[in-house]
Amino acid sequence: MIDLGISKLALIGAVALVVIGPERLPKVARTVGALVGRAQRYINDVKAEVSREVELDELRKMRTEFEDAARDVERTIHKEVHEHSQALNDALTGTDSSAQGGPGQDSGYVPSWDMAHKAHNGRKSWRVKQGARPVWYKRQHNVRVWAQSGAARVKRHRPATGPARSFFD
Count of domains in the chain? Predict the structure, then answer.
């Protein structure tokens, strides 16, 4: 920036006083001050915009690197899961898919867990769904752990004192 000292400012003020005149000098000084302030704000805004663009560009680069890394991890996981599931299918059917010419050419059919445990009408059976929750969870959320028949429930809650009564007594 321009190096303005006290002596240079005094010289500029004296020249302005002579050229402009004492009547218009305060108005011109206010206008010049406003223009200089406006120019400084504009320069600061441009600097801030440039720095924001640089930061956005860096963030975009980081995002693309992160997405690429996530895709690589996802591909690796899918590959490992596929390999392990293929190995399990081969072990369950007793065949080796690589010996038969690749995956998808298995002669044995292995039902999935859902297919093996579905009741009629394509819904999972009640026992499988109830057995899927641990007992501690059922106790914590007041879910019945076992089912009683109506007669067993009546017997359990009937008072034990006195002789047993029949319906016709």
Answer: 2
pLDDT tens digit sequence for 118-146? 555 555 666 666 667 777 777 788 877 66
- Residue 58 lies inside a defined structural domain of this protein: yes
Q: In this predicted model, what pLDDT tens digit does every residue of 10-44 receive, in sequence order?
A: 888 888 888 888 888 889 889 989 999 999 999 99
SS3 sequence of the chain: CCCCCHHHHHHHHHHHHHHHCCCCHHHHHHHHHHHHHHHHHHHHHHHHHHHHHHHHHHHHHHHHHHHHHHHHHHHHHHHHHHHHHHHHHHHHHCCCCCCCCCCCCCCCCCCCHHHHCECHHHCECHHHHHHCCCHHHHHHCCCCCCCCCHHHHHHHHCCCCCCCCCCCC
pTM of the full structure: 0.36
Q: Are 117 and 128 in contact (CB under 8 A)?
A: yes
Domain of 11 in residue numbering reads as 6-93
Which two three-digit tokens encode residue 82?
Answer: 């596929």
Same domain, 118 and 55: no
